[in-house]
Amino acid sequence: MRQKLTRVLGGVAMLALVAGGAACSSGGDDAASGGDKCGNKIAFFGALTGSSAALGINENNGVKLAVDKYNKENADCKVELVELDSQGSPDQAPQLAQKAIDDPKILGIVGPAYSGESEAAGPLFHEAGLVAITASATRPSLAEQGWKTFFRVVGNDLSQGPAAGTYIKNVMKADRVFVIDDQSAYGAGLADEVKKILGPAVVGTDKVQGEGKQVEFSAVVTKVKAANVKAIFYGGYYQEAGLIRKQLTAAGVTAPLVAGDGVNDPAYITSAGAAAAEGTILTCPCQPATEARGTFVEEFKALNGTDPGTYSDTAYDAANILLAGIKAGKTTREGLLEFVKGYSGEGVAASYKFVEGGELDPAQVKIWAYKVQGGKVVPDQEIPKA
Amino acid sequence: MNFDGLFSNFGELTTTGLTQGSIYALVALGYTLVYGVLRLINFAHSEVFIAGAFAAIWTWNGFGLDQNSQVSGVGSIMFYLLVAMIVAAIASAGTATVIERVAYRPLRKRNAPPLAFLITAIGASIAISEAFGVYTRRLPEGAPILVGTKPLFHIAGVPIDGVQLLTIGAALVMMIALDLFINRSRTGRGIRAVAQDANTAALMGVNKDRIILMVFIAGGAMAGVAGLLYDVRIQTLTYSVGFLLGLKAFTAAVLGGIGNLRGALLGGLLLGVIENYASGLFGTQWKDFAAFAVLVVLLMFRPTGLLGESLGRARA
Residues of the signal sequence (chain A) (predicted)? Predict the structure, then answer.
């Protein structure tokens, strides 16, 4: 019911935006000669449907809030939000990116949410000079492609992987660890970093299939069981992680699962069941969205009807960076790109400043450990830099 | 290559492989039955399975059980399992009936080319799967933990738990019942007659449409039970899991000899253990590679599968 209500409200909000945009363009005749200052758009690019939609919806809701607030403050010159649903698929990403590029009113993108789709869409944005700030794609190589339009407001896997390894080693003090990954660039990248930190403590490894292609993990479970480990690291996303955790617990494996931000989602607990999920450690290059500064949490809840989830706050910040540029009169793609490049400021989740390749300044990266407790993901502690 | 891992875990890899294989086998029966009678690969059968699996979970939800519930007491466990099994079998058989009535029978009446059947089958499959996807908002649904996974006893040092016992046991019982039904009952004789020569059977007074419907219902019921066993074993269901499971079950049917009931059983169990052995030996990422490589190689030497086609073969 609430879902429906939210959708209806969202629909009304969209209508209002469109109407506002129309009013704006008709009233701004005298300004038209100096370029279109109004009626600009920003787009959210990520999965809004499909098996990995949960994070995308979190982010989109954050962006929605940013745009909503902007439009309330700048009622005479609104910005429209375009939602590009990639379903998280790298195959769909290029054509969606082209769609955004073909709309000259779209000045900036929040996204793409995942690393795979970022890889596919990145070159197109680079060529079109369309700035894209991702709030969650953490694959390190994305910043090494020479794309001048790529920025991220979170740390990358390289910062998250060692932190997860450090946590397993120093906080959990586990000396026997099993490492599993889903063969995705994200999952395998994370697992490799963890293996580097843990070294000989890794007593077994295996690879599974991600993207919902595998639901039956008995062979992995058998191996983990035989390895008699103190902790299990999984590099991958929540869907498989939930199933693996459930099947491990069913087979009597009680060692806690440690995983990256791709698993940091309530759907992991639904999928694993609260009892099996209990005690799971999840790392994230983001501080708890509920610990965001200011009135973000209340405002988010008022608009979306749910608590902010993983990356809601960073997506909100990413959108605000774009909106700050538009507000400052950077209403061309080149102008906005330059603005983002030189941006330095505070958001609700962190402080932002970009270094080479569009990476977030390493000094600003925070990695948090979360814990599943009583069927909920609760913040555990910020992981100290080893 | 991890021979050590394979050998030290050989027993457990075998039992879990057989468990998964039992589910493949039950679904494979549906493919084999329909193929045996109609020479049609019913690609929508994976969604017949999904319908049963969702029906079982929703039945439990109706009793107030969700993924965090734990049920104790043999009596109530049996009750929940039995009710869900009946509902799942009915839901799956119903879905299969609807597919046959809406998607296949009209085509048959108009003598449509085989290609039309194939594309309708794929269309029906996607339509049903997407409907479940939209209805469940593409989120996983959890099943309660009904059957514990504490080892009940050991066979040669390999622990056997309740889920494995239930899955393999139920699959075998269903399989034997179906085998008896096809080979001993009057309807079964009709099914074999239509499979052998539909037109002659019709001349002998066999109602072809009724027989075909029976085939879909029988295959559907098997898939429904498979859906229930899947829920008990995996405990989480997503709308999209039918596709790959259906593909595996179809593979199992071809491996054993499509159109052959016992072949479906053999193919299913074999596929289950091959996957697990390959996972143990090469790593889980090689699971599907190994399964399909075995299929290709086997078909090179035995194009009709391990046991060959036989549903239509005359039997005294």
Answer: 1-24
